[in-house]
Amino acid sequence: MSVGAPGQRLIGQTTAKLTDSKNLFKSIFPPPDPTRWSSSNSPIFTPLTSSLTFEEMDCGEKVFVFEELAKRKERDDCWLLISGKVYDVTQFLEDHPGGDEVLLAASGKDATQDFEDVGHSDDARNMMKKYYIGEVDSATVPPPNKIKPQTYSVTQKDDEPGFLFKILQFLVPLLILGLAFGFQLLGKKEKTEA
Length: 194
Ligand code: HEM
Fold this sequence. Notes:
This is Cytochrome b5 heme-binding domain-containing protein. By secondary structure, the chain is an alpha+beta fold.
Protein backbone atom coordinates (compact mmCIF):
# COMPACT_ATOMS: atom_id res chain seq x y z
CA MET A 1 0.00 0.00 0.00
CA SER A 2 2.63 2.41 0.94
CA VAL A 3 5.28 0.89 -1.33
CA GLY A 4 4.40 2.97 -4.35
CA ALA A 5 4.18 6.30 -2.55
CA PRO A 6 7.74 6.57 -1.22
CA GLY A 7 9.04 5.26 -4.55
CA GLN A 8 7.03 7.91 -6.41
CA ARG A 9 8.30 10.56 -4.01
CA LEU A 10 11.85 9.31 -4.55
CA ILE A 11 11.42 9.44 -8.32
CA GLY A 12 9.81 12.86 -8.01
CA GLN A 13 12.66 14.22 -5.85
CA THR A 14 15.30 12.72 -8.14
CA THR A 15 13.62 14.28 -11.21
CA ALA A 16 13.39 17.62 -9.40
CA LYS A 17 17.08 17.40 -8.48
CA LEU A 18 17.97 16.49 -12.05
CA THR A 19 15.93 19.39 -13.39
CA ASP A 20 17.64 21.72 -10.89
CA SER A 21 21.11 20.57 -11.83
CA LYS A 22 20.19 20.87 -15.52
CA ASN A 23 19.11 24.46 -14.93
CA LEU A 24 22.27 25.09 -12.93
CA PHE A 25 24.38 23.66 -15.78
CA LYS A 26 22.46 25.76 -18.29
CA SER A 27 22.96 28.89 -16.23
CA ILE A 28 26.73 28.23 -16.08
CA PHE A 29 27.07 27.08 -19.70
CA PRO A 30 24.29 28.72 -21.71
CA PRO A 31 23.48 27.12 -25.06
CA PRO A 32 25.31 28.71 -27.98
CA ASP A 33 23.61 31.66 -29.58
CA PRO A 34 23.60 30.90 -33.32
CA THR A 35 23.81 34.60 -34.17
CA ARG A 36 27.11 34.90 -32.24
CA TRP A 37 28.55 31.52 -33.00
CA SER A 38 31.49 31.30 -35.32
CA SER A 39 34.37 28.89 -35.68
CA SER A 40 36.76 31.43 -34.18
CA ASN A 41 34.50 32.61 -31.37
CA SER A 42 33.41 30.03 -28.82
CA PRO A 43 30.48 31.15 -26.62
CA ILE A 44 32.42 30.05 -23.54
CA PHE A 45 35.16 32.55 -24.32
CA THR A 46 32.80 35.24 -25.61
CA PRO A 47 33.44 37.73 -22.75
CA LEU A 48 37.22 37.69 -23.32
CA THR A 49 37.23 37.80 -27.12
CA SER A 50 34.39 40.28 -27.36
CA SER A 51 36.09 42.72 -24.98
CA LEU A 52 39.25 42.62 -27.15
CA THR A 53 37.44 42.95 -30.46
CA PHE A 54 35.22 45.65 -29.02
CA GLU A 55 38.25 47.73 -28.10
CA GLU A 56 39.70 47.25 -31.57
CA MET A 57 36.42 47.77 -33.38
CA ASP A 58 35.42 50.74 -31.28
CA CYS A 59 38.72 52.47 -31.89
CA GLY A 60 39.09 51.22 -35.43
CA GLU A 61 35.82 52.84 -36.40
CA LYS A 62 37.16 56.30 -35.58
CA VAL A 63 38.96 57.88 -38.48
CA PHE A 64 40.40 61.33 -37.92
CA VAL A 65 41.23 64.02 -40.42
CA PHE A 66 44.88 65.09 -40.06
CA GLU A 67 43.97 68.74 -39.51
CA GLU A 68 41.79 67.76 -36.58
CA LEU A 69 44.45 65.73 -34.78
CA ALA A 70 47.20 68.25 -35.57
CA LYS A 71 45.38 70.77 -33.37
CA ARG A 72 45.82 68.56 -30.31
CA LYS A 73 49.31 69.63 -29.31
CA GLU A 74 48.74 71.18 -25.93
CA ARG A 75 49.68 69.91 -22.49
CA ASP A 76 46.02 69.40 -21.63
CA ASP A 77 45.15 67.84 -25.00
CA CYS A 78 47.98 66.02 -26.73
CA TRP A 79 47.57 63.49 -29.55
CA LEU A 80 50.24 61.62 -31.46
CA LEU A 81 50.17 60.19 -34.98
CA ILE A 82 52.41 57.14 -35.27
CA SER A 83 52.26 54.73 -38.23
CA GLY A 84 48.81 55.92 -39.24
CA LYS A 85 47.41 55.37 -35.74
CA VAL A 86 46.25 58.10 -33.41
CA TYR A 87 47.10 58.12 -29.70
CA ASP A 88 45.75 60.40 -27.01
CA VAL A 89 48.77 60.71 -24.71
CA THR A 90 47.47 63.58 -22.56
CA GLN A 91 47.38 61.38 -19.46
CA PHE A 92 50.76 59.83 -20.34
CA LEU A 93 52.77 63.05 -20.68
CA GLU A 94 54.01 63.09 -17.09
CA ASP A 95 54.73 59.35 -17.02
CA HIS A 96 56.63 59.15 -20.32
CA PRO A 97 60.19 57.98 -19.52
CA GLY A 98 61.54 60.20 -22.31
CA GLY A 99 59.81 63.26 -20.83
CA ASP A 100 56.76 65.27 -21.78
CA GLU A 101 58.58 67.78 -23.95
CA VAL A 102 59.49 65.22 -26.61
CA LEU A 103 55.87 64.09 -26.83
CA LEU A 104 54.63 67.67 -27.13
CA ALA A 105 57.24 68.34 -29.81
CA ALA A 106 56.13 65.22 -31.69
CA SER A 107 52.44 66.20 -31.65
CA GLY A 108 50.77 68.16 -34.44
CA LYS A 109 52.66 66.19 -37.10
CA ASP A 110 53.40 62.63 -38.17
CA ALA A 111 55.60 61.40 -35.30
CA THR A 112 56.40 58.01 -36.84
CA GLN A 113 60.01 58.83 -37.64
CA ASP A 114 60.66 60.45 -34.25
CA PHE A 115 59.17 57.44 -32.48
CA GLU A 116 61.15 54.90 -34.52
CA ASP A 117 64.41 56.86 -34.23
CA VAL A 118 64.34 56.38 -30.45
CA GLY A 119 64.15 52.61 -30.86
CA HIS A 120 61.32 52.03 -28.41
CA SER A 121 61.15 48.65 -26.69
CA ASP A 122 58.39 46.08 -27.11
CA ASP A 123 57.08 47.15 -23.71
CA ALA A 124 56.70 50.70 -25.00
CA ARG A 125 54.88 49.41 -28.10
CA ASN A 126 52.49 47.37 -25.95
CA MET A 127 51.91 50.40 -23.76
CA MET A 128 50.73 52.36 -26.79
CA LYS A 129 47.55 50.25 -27.05
CA LYS A 130 46.30 51.95 -23.90
CA TYR A 131 46.31 55.35 -25.61
CA TYR A 132 45.07 54.26 -29.05
CA ILE A 133 41.97 56.17 -30.10
CA GLY A 134 41.69 55.58 -33.85
CA GLU A 135 43.20 55.87 -37.30
CA VAL A 136 44.04 58.81 -39.51
CA ASP A 137 42.55 59.28 -42.97
CA SER A 138 45.82 58.84 -44.87
CA ALA A 139 44.57 61.01 -47.75
CA THR A 140 44.53 64.01 -45.38
CA VAL A 141 48.13 63.60 -44.15
CA PRO A 142 50.44 66.09 -45.87
CA PRO A 143 53.60 64.64 -47.44
CA PRO A 144 56.69 64.68 -45.21
CA ASN A 145 58.40 68.09 -44.94
CA LYS A 146 61.71 66.67 -46.12
CA ILE A 147 60.64 66.35 -49.75
CA LYS A 148 59.84 70.01 -50.33
CA PRO A 149 63.02 71.70 -49.07
CA GLN A 150 65.13 69.09 -50.83
CA THR A 151 63.69 69.74 -54.29
CA TYR A 152 63.53 73.48 -53.55
CA SER A 153 67.16 73.73 -52.50
CA VAL A 154 68.39 71.60 -55.40
CA THR A 155 66.63 73.65 -58.07
CA GLN A 156 67.09 77.08 -56.50
CA LYS A 157 70.62 77.04 -55.10
CA ASP A 158 72.33 74.90 -57.69
CA ASP A 159 70.91 76.65 -60.73
CA GLU A 160 72.09 80.19 -60.03
CA PRO A 161 75.79 79.53 -59.29
CA GLY A 162 75.88 77.07 -62.19
CA PHE A 163 74.76 79.73 -64.63
CA LEU A 164 77.26 82.34 -63.31
CA PHE A 165 80.08 79.80 -63.36
CA LYS A 166 79.42 78.96 -67.01
CA ILE A 167 79.54 82.64 -68.05
CA LEU A 168 82.77 83.20 -66.10
CA GLN A 169 84.30 80.13 -67.76
CA PHE A 170 83.98 81.93 -71.10
CA LEU A 171 84.72 85.48 -69.95
CA VAL A 172 87.91 84.93 -67.92
CA PRO A 173 89.96 83.30 -70.73
CA LEU A 174 88.72 85.96 -73.15
CA LEU A 175 89.85 88.72 -70.75
CA ILE A 176 93.27 87.11 -70.32
CA LEU A 177 93.69 86.76 -74.10
CA GLY A 178 92.56 90.34 -74.64
CA LEU A 179 95.02 91.68 -72.04
CA ALA A 180 97.89 89.62 -73.48
CA PHE A 181 97.11 90.84 -76.99
CA GLY A 182 96.93 94.45 -75.74
CA PHE A 183 100.31 94.25 -73.97
CA GLN A 184 101.85 92.71 -77.09
CA LEU A 185 100.61 95.58 -79.23
CA LEU A 186 101.90 98.13 -76.74
CA GLY A 187 105.34 96.44 -76.71
CA LYS A 188 105.52 96.50 -80.52
CA LYS A 189 104.56 100.18 -80.66
CA GLU A 190 107.23 101.10 -78.12
CA LYS A 191 109.87 99.21 -80.15
CA THR A 192 108.96 100.93 -83.44
CA GLU A 193 108.96 104.37 -81.75
CA ALA A 194 112.42 103.72 -80.28
C1 HEM B 1 52.27 56.51 -27.28
C2 HEM B 1 53.51 56.79 -27.62
C3 HEM B 1 54.73 56.47 -26.77
C4 HEM B 1 54.91 55.58 -25.76
C5 HEM B 1 53.88 54.61 -25.17
C6 HEM B 1 56.28 55.71 -25.32
C7 HEM B 1 56.85 54.96 -24.29
C8 HEM B 1 58.16 55.02 -23.92
C9 HEM B 1 58.81 54.13 -22.98
C10 HEM B 1 58.14 52.98 -22.26
C11 HEM B 1 60.10 54.50 -22.89
C12 HEM B 1 61.19 53.83 -22.04
C13 HEM B 1 62.17 53.10 -22.94
C14 HEM B 1 61.54 51.98 -23.71
O1 HEM B 1 60.91 51.12 -23.09
O2 HEM B 1 61.65 51.97 -24.96
C15 HEM B 1 60.27 55.65 -23.74
C16 HEM B 1 61.44 56.34 -23.88
C17 HEM B 1 61.60 57.42 -24.70
N1 HEM B 1 60.69 57.91 -25.60
FE1 HEM B 1 58.81 57.28 -25.80
N2 HEM B 1 56.90 56.67 -26.05
C18 HEM B 1 55.99 57.15 -26.95
C19 HEM B 1 56.21 58.11 -27.90
C20 HEM B 1 57.38 58.78 -28.07
C21 HEM B 1 57.62 59.78 -29.08
C22 HEM B 1 56.64 60.23 -30.15
C23 HEM B 1 58.86 60.23 -28.90
C24 HEM B 1 59.49 61.31 -29.76
C25 HEM B 1 60.74 61.44 -30.00
C26 HEM B 1 59.45 59.52 -27.78
C27 HEM B 1 60.69 59.69 -27.27
C28 HEM B 1 61.27 58.96 -26.26
C29 HEM B 1 62.60 59.19 -25.74
C30 HEM B 1 63.57 60.28 -26.19
C31 HEM B 1 62.81 58.22 -24.77
C32 HEM B 1 64.05 58.05 -23.90
C33 HEM B 1 64.95 57.03 -24.55
C34 HEM B 1 66.12 56.75 -23.68
O3 HEM B 1 66.34 57.47 -22.72
O4 HEM B 1 66.79 55.76 -23.98
N3 HEM B 1 58.51 58.63 -27.30
N4 HEM B 1 59.08 55.93 -24.38
